[in-house]
Design a protein that fits this description.
The protein is α+β, with helices and mostly antiparallel strands. It has helices at residues 13-23, 42-66, 74-85; strands at residues 3-6, 27-31, 34-39.
């Protein structure tokens, strides 16, 4: 459930920081009853950015496939990686 706090609670920086870390999601700040700001912990922001980057890459891959780009063979890719990095050598 989203956390919504009035802007006056930003005076309690330690409590807001703890809330952001505990909630692990953005905290919405209102001003005069209307949405004004969104704050979150650095960890939450980094997680969300990584997720957005993953979605962006998936979108690019779907577009490439729709445009006729042939997907790589997974077994061949893993063979090349194992050879390059020396995995699987007995």
């Amino acid at each position: 459930m989203p956390q919504i706090k009035p802007i006056t609670e930003l005076r309690n920086t330690t409590e807001i920081s703890e809330l952001c870390h505990k909630a692990e999601e953005p905290v919405y700040i209102t001003k005069n009853g209307y949405g004004d700001l969104v704050i979150m912990s650095l960890e939450t922001w980094e997680r969300d950015q990584a997720l957005l980057e993953t979605y962006r890459k998936l979108g690019e891959a779907e577009t490439a496939l729709a445009n006729g780009v042939k997907p790589l063979d997974g077994d061949a890719v893993f063979r090349r990686l194992r050879t390059k990095y020396g995995y699987g050598d007995s």
